[in-house]
Amino acid sequence: MKQIIIKPNIYKYATSMEFSKDFHLGKGDLILTNEYIFNPYFGQMGLEVSAIFQEKYGMGEPTDLMIEAILEDALKTGCKRVIAIGGGTVIDIAKVLAVAENENVDELYEKAATLKKQRELVIIPTTCGTGSEVTNISIINRTRLGTKMGLVSDQMFADAAVLIPELLEGLPFSVFATSSIDALVHAVESSLSPKATPFTRLFGYKAIEMIILGFKTIAEEGKAARVALLEDFLIASNFAGIAFGTAGCAAVHALSYPLGGKYHVAHGESNYAMFTGVLKNYMEIKQDGEIAVMNAYLSNLLVCEQTQVYDELEKLLNQILPKKAMHEYGVVREDLAAFTQAVMTTQTRLMGNNLVPLDAARVLKIYTELY
Description:
Elements: E1 9-12, H1 16-22, E2 29-33, H2 35-41, E3 50-53, H3 64-77, E4 81-86, H4 88-99, H5 105-110, E5 120-125, E6 137-142, E7 147-152, E8 160-163, H6 173-192, H7 198-221, H8 230-247, H9 251-263, H10 267-285, H11 290-302, H12 309-318, H13 333-346, H14 348-351, H15 360-370
Parallel strand pairs: 1-8, 2-3, 2-4, 4-5, 5-8
Antiparallel strand pairs: 6-7
């Protein structure tokens, strides 16, 4: 059994300038980013690079249509290396640019098993949640199918993952909140996965510790306290990415995708909407094994009884990002059966990583409880 996958070399720099010099940015490079990131950090360097600003092609998480429009313009640059500087949307699009020739997104899914890397890929995350800089998956809202799905290929691993804490300094608190909760979900789900190993759990449990202790500091000292913790959260996100890159995510992500896809809820927020609901249902089915280890670990961090860990966890997370019921996003009861069907038919990859098997009746039960 494969124990852990750490594909990209991981670098860390104090400043963007140090990175630019060390990686010799110049002709043949395409920087995919956002203008509000590029201008203050890279705009004054006089780099002979091509640049594409993702927001010019649409807002929100990546869709098939957005990716196809960006790919068309990226191909015109003749780039040999793609440098992604941004959050999950930018990173997921860049992974597609690394393997795409001139196919549409549907064709890429059809040939996922035979994709080849066309361009070198460097990924620099500017949020503290995706962990996507060290994984081989791109999450795309397939508008023609009406759901989010993962495109997976080992050819989509970055050649280098680069951590630059200064790029997080202007991160709005709302984005910090959704992305860091996403990282926590990655760490928990990967640690409970049947594919978890001692190596992945080493990274997963350490990420949980760093994130929860950071959240406790912010809850006690206020939002401004996060600034001194940004490097810790960036590293914790990376640890969680390493963990789920091997062990995978599971039902929390699977159940969140129909909500995010139809009602355009941010990925981390839609995960949080499902998070403790899924864990509580796991506990109804299985109380021993790794979930008992997880509950003991959480109880120590949260300083509470093991029977109270999910309620106490939710209390803490609510101080970072208030949780909403599904109906508050516009979901109607008629959606729940359709969401269940979508999970059971399009998210089998994720559902295979559940702590225990969840059938359609259980998925519908979770949705109903969270409605």
